[in-house]
Design a protein that fits this description.
Elements (H helix, E strand, L loop, with lengths): L25 H13 L4 E5 L8 E5 L5 E5 L3 H11 L3 E3 H4 L3 H14 L1
Parallel strand pairs: 1-4
Antiparallel strand pairs: 1-2, 2-3
Length: 112
């Protein structure tokens, strides 16, 4: 079973709360890994599962660029982060980094 659950999505899932969202899959995890490998200073921020959405992780680069993907559980992104030697934070405890907001503001200005 391990080869079919490469990132532990099913094994580390735990009880599921979300009802309206799709489950995390390997492509979600691989997108976070690709983002982290192609940018400098990446940190992961875990967002909790809600009734409507699965547990997600936001990867934020040092320039503030970011991406969000489903991860299934905090343990999954923890395992990925350990493999990449990157930090993981609980967004409920730390909040989002200011550089993420600055990046969003820069993008809005460039669009106008």
């Amino acid at each position: 079973m391990r080869w079919r659950d490469r990132y532990g999505l099913r094994r580390l899932r735990g009880p599921k709360i979300a009802k309206f969202d799709r489950d995390a899959n390997d492509a979600d995890i691989e997108a976070l890994i690709a983002f982290a490998k192609s940018r400098r200073g990446v940190e992961f921020y875990v967002e909790p599962e809600t009734f409507a959405t699965d547990t997600t992780a936001v990867a934020v680069a040092d320039d503030g660029e970011w991406t969000r993907r489903r991860v299934g559980s905090p343990a999954v992104i923890g395992k990925v982060a350990r493999g990449l030697a990157l930090p993981v934070y609980d967004v409920q405890l730390t909040g989002y980094p200011p550089r993420m907001r600055a990046y969003n503001e820069r993008r809005k200005r460039e669009e106008n």
